[in-house]
Amino acid sequence: MTKTTATTALVVMIPLVLSGIGFAHEGPHKVMGTVSAVHEHRVDVKTTDGKNVSITTEEKTKILRGATAIRVTDIRVGDRVVVTATEKKDSAGKLALTASEVRLGAPAARATKSPGRRDDR
User: Fold this and answer.
1) What superfamily does domain 29-104 belong to in CATH?
2) Pairing mode, if any, of strands 62-65 and 68-69?
3) Would you write out the chain's pLDDT as a tens digit for each of its 121 residues?
4) C-alpha–C-alpha distance, residues 43 and 45, integer Å
5) In angstroms, rounded to a whole number, what is the distance separating the alpha carbons of residues 79 and 107?
6) Residue 116, Ramachandran bin (φ over 0: left; ψ between -120 and 50: alpha; else beta)
7) Angstrom distance (rounded) from CA 121 to CA 118
8) Rounded to the nearest 5°, which phi and psi values hold at 37?
């Protein structure tokens, strides 16, 4: 590779790489995991990779269990969630995740034993 070709490649690549870094955190974030705590305006989630994340909820946050709309107070510790959130400044000026949507799985169907069936094989 000649010096001119290498220089041209660097001139083209550096802006492309830097533009990707600048946009890395724009747009919605997805947080998946298990609810570890529920507060009046916040849900704490232990993510699938073991991190603890606090997510603020607002009046306009859509919270769904399956297809049914629910309230923050209906969320329980241990529920599995997928949260769509954006970064916003909180009242102290710090960046915080604010949920636009919280999705919980549909309630699990309860297993029932068949009368007369024995499980002592």
Assistant:
1) Nucleic acid-binding proteins (2.40.50.140)
2) antiparallel
3) 565 554 444 444 444 444 333 334 567 999 999 999 999 999 999 999 999 999 999 999 999 999 999 999 999 999 999 999 999 887 788 889 999 999 998 665 555 555 555 555 4
4) 6
5) 10
6) left
7) 8
8) -165, 150
* pTM confidence score: 0.65
DSSP state of 57: -
Cα 121–chain centre separation: 44
Q: What is the DSSP letter of 77?
A: T
pLDDT at 111: 52
Residue 115 CA to residue 121 CA, distance in Å, equals 16
Residue 36 CB neighbours (<10 A): 15
Helix, strand, coil shares, percent, the chain, to 5: 20, 40, 40
